[in-house]
Design goal:
Layout lengths: L10 H13 L10 H13 L4 E5 L2 H11 L7 E5 L5 H9 L2 E5 L10 H7 L4 E4 L11 H11 L2 E5 L7 E2 L2 E2 L6 E5 L12 E5 L2 H11 L20 H32 L5 E2 L7 E2 L5 E5 L4 H13 L27 H9 E4 L7 H14 L2
Parallel strand pairs: 2-3, 2-4, 4-5, 5-8
Antiparallel strand pairs: 1-9, 6-7, 6-11, 8-9, 10-12, 12-13
Bound molecules: pyridoxal-5'-phosphate.
The site of pyridoxal-5'-phosphate has 14 residues, from helix 3 and helix 4.
Length: about 375
């Protein structure tokens, strides 16, 4: 099976882990041992951010950022429903209410038109998601946020190596949150990072990461144990160096696959708006005019051919049993996308021959 994603690990990561294990320093009481500090500095530099705070997951990064911004009970946060559930989950964990808005039918990222309609006196923040590795349309989102005095927490969990307006993603947000989960463009197994130019957000998130402490046994606020282990940071340092190569390979695979997909009138390849550079965390195609059954049947057929096709996301969050209590949301573009999209493998381990096989198989099955 050509898997939808696969961690790209070799001897260099293994050596880095062994080195940490032999050093005897596996963690640090306040969350930043030598490897975590090195990883934070390198990551901040790579996205041109002033500060970075490593976390044990992307979910922890998102939650800590909302908490650091003081978002809590009585507040509302606007976000897309077409994303991984963690984006909404952290709003609820922070004590605030998620308000879901629709997406753009071509990019699958938050529709800027729908944001202003959803703003109320309770709105405190916007959470655009760089879905599938394609940056959300951050310029207009920044303008809306500034006009209404809102913060932007960008969910960049899928967007390592993506660019918007010539800058690494995150540049237009108050803070960006990243994930290093095993499937991501670069991984530490599990892990996360906050990047920001705002010192206060970074300092507060650092305390939240470590039981609300700045010095040991002096909790200043409610915190958590969100420490990234030293071993993970060591893997992260190696993976970060390889990231440009990984993204280049994904982009080349995506370019080649699009040549096949374009030959099929029933399929719509992913689009990359001018000024955006996708990291192609997922290469996502729309099966035009298909319903859920027809799309699911195609995915099953592809799997039988050895192609790990995958659907992100079959259930928009506003329709999930737990999240229905946050109100009725009318999101027709989101619901349509959840019935028609599917993703195909383009990770760096996929060869040219495999891309051609995937492309030809998809053409044959959708004729
Ligand atoms: C869009 C999005 N947001 C948040 C997360 C949460 O990251 P993590 O799994 O590292 O907690 C993920 C990834 O899993 C994601 O894809």
């Amino acid at each position: 099976m050509i898997s939808i994603n696969a961690p790209q690990i070799d001897q260099e990561e293994i050596n880095a882990v062994v080195k940490v294990m032999k050093s005897g320093v596996l963690t640090h009481g306040l969350g930043a041992g030598p490897m975590v500090t090195e990883f934070e500095n390198a990551f901040a530099k790579s996205v041109k951010a002033k500060h970075s705070v490593a976390m044990n997951t992307g979910t922890a990064a998102l939650h800590s950022t909302l908490a650091a911004l003081g978002i809590g009970a009585g507040d509302e946060v606007i976000l897309p429903s077409f994303t991984f559930v963690a984006t909404a989950e952290v709003v609820v964990i922070a004590g605030a209410k998620p308000v879901f808005v629709d997406i753009d039918a071509d990019t699958y990222t938050m529709s800027t038109k729908s944001i202003e309609k959803a703003i109320t006196k309770k709105t405190k923040a916007l959470m655009p998601v760089d879905l599938y590795g394609l940056p959300a349309d951050m310029q207009p989102i920044r303008e809306i946020a500034d006009k209404h005095g809102l913060k932007i927490v960008e969910d960049a969990a899928q967007a390592h190596g993506a660019m918007y307006d010539g800058k690494p993603v995150g540049a237009f947000a108050d803070a960006a949150c990243w994930s290093f989960y095993g499937s991501k463009n670069m991984t530490t197994g599990e892990g996360g990072m906050i990047t920001t130019n705002d010192k206060e957000i970074a300092d507060t998130a650092r305390s939240i990461r470590s039981h609300g402490e700045k010095t040991k046994y002096q909790s200043l606020m409610l915190g958590h144990n969100y420490h990234m282990p030293e071993i993970e940071a060591a893997i992260g340092c190696v993976q970060l160096k390889k990231l440009p190569g990984f993204v280049a390979r994904r982009r080349e695979n995506a370019r080649r696959l699009t040549q096949h997909v374009e030959k099929t009138k029933n399929l719509k390849p992913p689009m990359e708006p001018k000024g955006s550079k996708s990291s192609y965390y997922l290469y996502t195609v729309r099966y035009k005019n298909a319903n859920r059954e027809k799309r699911d049947a195609l995915v099953e057929k592809l799997k039988r051919e050895g192609i790990g096709a995958f659907v992100c996301y079959v259930n928009p969050i506003h329709l999930m049993p737990y999240y229905r209590k946050f109100g009725k949301h009318k999101l027709p573009i989101t619901e349509k996308a959840s019935e028609q999209v599917f993703s195909l493998p383009v990770h760096p381990g996929v060869t040219d021959e495999q891309v051609d096989f995937i492309g030809k198989t998809v053409q044959r099955l959708t004729r």
